[in-house]
C-alpha cells in the first residue's frame, strides 16, 4: 500500500497537456434569479447534452461558428433557444415559468438538498430552501433534516455543541466560511451558534478527504458556509422567531446596490433565552440562559476582470447556567454551582480575484482573514479565560490548459496564538504549546475525459513551527458509468494540531480530575471512501439511490479518555483508532409536490484506551432518518415532517463499586414537524421539536451534590430538553 500511493500520484501528474475542443460556460436562472438545478442544455439538433449543477452552472463542448443555437429546457419552464455569437465569457440564461390562462400548468419544486452529479468530490449542498424546512435559527440547527451530519450537546449545562461526520467528532471536520478556515480552537465549542440561519445562502458538505486548496486539516470532511451575497440577496429580509421556552430571536439583512460595481450587505441578529427552566427538577437549568448580539457588514466590488469581497463581523455571546434561585430551594442557595461564559469575537476577511485569461479560466486570487476570540469562563470556583488570535492568508493560481487538463497551485499561511488565565484546582497539565505558525504550498491537477472520467490529484507540503515538515496527498476519482449512474473513489491524508484545554474546556463542568500529558503529537489520519449514486427516471420523475462507505484510520491521535469515572486523561494514542461508516439513501417525489427521503447509517468507531480497544463512548451505533415534505400546487402551503431513529451505544466505564450510570444507553426516536404558509412577500411558520418528548434521564450525574467527587455533566448521549413548540415570521422585499 505504501508503494501504491506515491505511484498513482506520479502517474496522474504525467498526463500530457493537450488542447482541442472548446467549452461554452454559463448559468441557468429562474425569473427570481434562483439557480435552476438539473436543466437540460444541448445544441440544436443534438441528441444529448449536459445538465446544470447545484449553482445552475453548466459547461458544454462545442465548435465556434458551427454550434451557435443553444437549447435549454426544464420541467415547468418554457424551453428557450439562445443564439451564441462566440464562446468567450459566461452565458446567463433566464427561463420563464410555463403558464396557461394565468395558472401554472406544471410546477416542480426546486430541490433544497442537492447531491451534485457533476461535482468530482462527494459533496452535498443545503440551499436556503432546505434551511427553511425547520426552525434553523443557527448553523447548529441546520442539519435536522440531513442524513449525513449530526449535531449533539457536548454536556448538559454549558450549551456547547459538537458536529459529527463519518462517525467522527467535529475536531476532525474542517469548518469554513466563504471557503476560508474558521472557528478554530475554543470557537469550535460554541461556533455552531455563531452563524444565524437566515444569514446563510447555502451550506456545502464534503465527505472524506477534501481538496488540498483549503489546507491539510480535513480528515473526515469539510463544512463550508456561504453567507448571502450583496449582488444576489434581496434588498430586505426579516425573520422573527419565538418558542414556548421563551426563546426570542430576530434577524434582519439587506443588500444595497451603490453603483454598477459596488454593493454592500448589512446583517443583524439578536437572540434572548434568559428564562430559566428545570423540567427534570434536578436543580440545574436544562439550558443556559443565553443572550447574543451578532452584526456583520460585507462589501462586493467587481469589474470585468477583478472581484473583491470583504467583510467584518462582531459577536457578543453570554451564557449563564448551573444552579440558580429559580432551580434551587432557598435553603440550598448558600453556595450554588454556577457556570458563566462571556465571549466577544471579531472577524474580518477579504477575498480578491483577478482574471488573467477568461478563455482559459486563468486567474489569481488572494484570501486574507483574521479573528480575535475573547472568552471568560467560570465553572463554580474554577476560572478559565482564553484569548485566541488567528491570521490566515492564501494565494492561489488556476488555469485550464484545455477542457481535459486543469492546474491549481498556491501558497498559504496560518498563525494561531493562545493566551490563557487558568485557576483550575483539578487540572494537571504539562507544558503545552501556546502558538503555532504553519506555511505551506500545494499543487492540484484535474483530468477530465469527456465529462465521463474525472481525476483530482492534490499534494501539499507544510512546515509547522511545532512539528516541522509534513506532506498531505489526496486523490479523488469520479466515473460516470451512464448519464444516470456515478461512482466516486477518494483517498487522502489529513493533519491537526492540538490545543487540548481550549478545545475541551466544557469538561470543566465536572468534578473529575483532568490530566493532560506533555508533548502531545500532531494528529494524522488517512481517509478512504467509495460511493455510488443512481438517478433513475421513474414515472416522469427521478428516483435517487446512493450508497457509500468510508474508513478513517488514525496513525497519530490525541485521546480524550473518560474510562476512569473520576478522571479525564488526555494523552497520545498507543495502538489503533479507526472508524467505519456505511450509509444508504433513497429519495423520490411520490407525487407532485411531495418528496420523501429515507436513509440508514451504520457506524463503528473504535479507539485504544490505555491499551484496550473499545468502541467510542456516547456515540450511537446507527442512525436512520425519514423526511417527508409536501408543497401544495400553487406553493401556498408547505408541510415538513422528520423522524430520527438513533441507535444504542456504549457509555464510559462506570465505577465498579458504585456505578452511577449504565454500561450502555438505549435507542431513541426524535420527531420534528413544521407547517409554513406562504404569501406574496411574507410567510409564517409553526413547528414542534422532539414531539415524542423523549429526554435522557439524569443527564447530570450527582446533580444533588455538585461539589462532591461524583458530579459530572458530560455524560450526554440524548436530548436534554423535552417537547418544544415555536412560531416564526419571514418577510422579504424581492430583488427586482
Automatic annotation (TrEMBL):
Q: Where is the TonB-dependent receptor-like beta-barrel domain?
A: 318-691
What InterPro entries is this protein classified in? Answer: Beta-barrel_TonB, Beta-barrel_TonB_sf, CarboxyPept-like_regulatory, Plug_dom, Plug_dom_sf, TonB-dep_rcpt-like
Main location (coarse class): membrane
> Its membrane topology, per UniProt?
Multi-pass membrane protein
Coiled-coil ranges (or none):
none
Please provide the record's keywords in A-Z order.
Answer: Cell outer membrane, Membrane, Receptor, Signal, TonB box, Transmembrane, Transmembrane beta strand, Transport
Q: Does Membrane show up as a keyword for this record?
A: yes
A GO biological-process term:
siderophore transmembrane transport
Q: Which GO terms describe its molecular function?
A: siderophore uptake transmembrane transporter activity
**What is a single Pfam family found in this protein's UniProt entry?**
CarbopepD_reg_2
TonB-dependent receptor plug domain segment(s): 123-221
Gene3D superfamilies annotated for this entry? Carboxypeptidase-like, regulatory domain, TonB-dependent receptor, beta-barrel domain, TonB-dependent receptor, plug domain
Signal peptide extent: 1-21
Q: Name one GO cellular component term.
A: cell outer membrane
Provide the protein's localization: Cell outer membrane
Q: Which family does it belong to?
A: Belongs to the TonB-dependent receptor family.
Q: What protein am I looking at?
A: Outer membrane receptor proteins, mostly Fe transport
Amino acid at each position: 500500500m505504501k508503494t501504491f500511493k506515491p505511484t498513482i500520484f506520479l502517474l496522474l501528474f504525467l498526463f500530457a497537456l493537450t488542447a482541442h475542443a472548446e467549452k461554452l460556460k454559463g448559468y441557468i436562472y429562474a425569473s427570481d434569479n434562483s439557480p435552476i438545478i438539473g436543466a437540460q442544455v444541448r445544441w440544436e439538433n443534438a441528441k444529448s447534452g449536459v445538465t446544470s449543477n447545484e449553482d445552475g452552472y453548466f459547461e458544454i463542448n462545442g465548435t465556434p461558428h458551427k454550434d451557435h443555437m443553444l437549447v435549454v429546457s426544464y420541467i415547468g419552464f418554457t424551453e428557450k433557444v439562445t443564439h451564441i455569437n462566440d464562446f468567450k465569457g459566461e452565458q446567463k440564461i433566464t427561463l420563464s415559468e410555463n403558464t396557461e390562462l394565468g395558472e401554472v400548468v406544471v410546477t416542480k419544486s426546486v430541490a433544497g438538498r442537492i447531491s451534485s452529479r457533476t461535482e468530482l468530490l462527494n459533496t452535498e449542498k443545503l440551499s436556503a430552501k432546505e434551511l427553511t424546512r425547520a426552525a434553523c435559527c443557527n448553523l447548529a440547527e441546520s442539519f435536522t433534516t440531513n442524513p449525513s451530519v449530526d449535531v449533539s450537546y457536548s454536556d448538559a449545562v454549558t450549551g456547547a455543541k459538537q458536529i459529527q461526520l463519518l462517525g467522527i467528532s467535529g475536531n476532525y471536520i474542517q469548518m469554513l466560511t466563504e471557503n476560508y478556515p474558521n472557528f478554530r480552537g475554543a470557537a469550535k465549542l460554541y461556533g455552531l451558534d455563531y452563524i444565524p440561519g437566515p444569514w446563510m445562502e447555502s451550506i456545502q458538505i464534503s465527505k472524506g478527504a477534501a481538496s488540498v486548496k483549503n489546507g491539510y486539516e480535513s480528515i473526515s470532511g469539510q463544512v463550508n458556509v456561504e453567507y448571502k451575497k450583496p449582488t444576489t440577496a434581496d434588498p430586505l429580509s426579516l425573520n422573527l422567531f419565538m418558542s414556548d421556552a421563551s426563546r426570542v430571536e430576530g434577524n434582519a439583512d439587506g443588500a444595497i446596490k451603490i453603483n454598477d460595481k459596488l454593493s454592500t450587505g448589512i446583517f443583524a441578529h439578536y437572540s434572548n433565552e434568559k428564562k430559566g427552566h428545570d423540567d427534570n427538577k434536578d436543580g440545574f437549568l436544562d439550558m443556559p440562559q443565553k443572550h447574543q448580539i451578532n452584526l456583520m457588514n460585507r462589501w462586493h466590488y467587481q469589474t470585468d476582470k477583478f472581484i473583491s469581497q470583504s467583510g467584518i463581523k462582531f459577536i457578543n455571546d453570554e451564557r449563564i447556567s448551573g444552579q440558580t434561585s429559580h432551580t434551587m430551594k432557598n435553603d440550598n442557595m448558600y453556595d450554588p454551582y454556577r457556570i458563566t461564559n462571556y465571549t466577544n469575537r471579531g472577524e474580518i476577511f477579504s477575498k480578491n480575484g483577478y482574471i488573467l485569461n477568461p478563455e482559459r479560466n486563468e486567474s489569481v486570487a488572494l484570501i486574507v482573514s483574521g479573528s480575535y476570540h475573547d472568552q471568560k469562563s467560570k465553572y463554580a470556583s474554577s476560572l478559565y479565560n482564553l484569548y485566541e488570535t488567528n491570521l490566515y492568508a492564501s494565494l492561489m493560481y488556476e488555469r485550464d490548459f484545455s477542457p481535459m487538463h486543469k492546474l491549481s497551485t498556491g501558497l498559504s499561511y496560518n498563525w494561531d496564538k493562545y493566551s490563557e488565565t487558568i485557576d483550575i484546582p483539578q487540572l494537571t497539565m504539562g507544558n503545552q504549546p501556546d502558538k503555532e505558525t504553519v506555511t505551506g504550498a500545494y499543487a492540484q491537477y484535474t483530468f477530465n475525459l469527456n465529462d465521463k472520467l474525472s481525476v483530482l490529484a492534490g499534494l501539499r507540503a507544510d512546515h509547522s513551527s511545532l512539528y516541522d515538515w509534513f506532506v498531505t496527498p489526496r486523490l479523488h476519482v469520479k466515473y460516470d458509468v451512464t448519464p444516470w449512474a456515478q461512482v466516486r473513489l477518494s483517498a487522502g491524508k489529513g493533519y491537526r494540531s492540538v490545543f487540548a484545554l481550549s478545545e475541551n474546556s466544557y469538561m470543566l463542568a465536572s468534578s473529575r480530575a483532568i490530566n493532560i500529558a506533555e508533548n502531545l503529537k500532531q494528529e494524522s489520519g488517512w481517509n478512504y471512501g467509495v460511493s455510488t449514486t443512481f438517478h433513475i427516471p421513474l414515472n416522469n420523475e427521478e428516483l435517487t439511490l446512493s450508497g457509500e462507505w468510508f474508513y478513517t484510520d488514525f496513525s497519530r491521535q490525541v485521546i480524550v479518555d473518560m474510562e476512569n469515572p473520576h478522571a479525564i486523561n488526555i494523552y497520545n494514542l498507543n495502538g489503533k483508532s479507526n472508524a467505519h461508516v456505511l450509509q444508504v439513501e433513497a429519495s423520490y417525489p411520490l407525487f407532485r409536490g411531495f418528496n420523501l427521503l429515507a436513509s440508514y447509517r451504520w457506524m463503528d468507531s473504535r479507539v485504544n484506551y490505555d491499551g484496550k480497544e473499545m468502541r467510542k463512548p456516547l456515540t450511537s451505533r446507527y442512525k436512520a432518518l425519514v423526511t417527508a415534505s409536501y408543497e401544495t400546487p400553487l406553493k401556498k402551503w408547505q408541510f415538513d415532517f422528520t423522524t430520527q431513529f438513533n441507535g444504542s451505544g456504549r457509555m464510559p466505564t462506570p465505577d465498579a463499586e458504585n456505578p452511577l450510570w449504565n454500561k450502555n444507553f438505549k435507542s431513541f426516536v426524535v420527531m420534528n414537524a413544521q407547517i409554513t404558509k406562504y404569501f406574496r412577500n411574507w410567510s409564517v411558520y409553526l413547528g414542534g421539536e422532539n414531539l415524542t418528548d423523549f429526554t435522557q434521564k439524569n443527564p447530570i450525574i450527582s446533580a444533588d451534590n455538585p461539589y462532591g467527587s461524583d458530579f459530572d455533566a458530560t455524560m450526554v448521549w440524548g436530548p436534554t430538553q423535552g417537547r418544544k413548540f415555536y412560531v416564526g415570521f419571514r418577510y422579504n422585499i424581492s430583488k427586482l
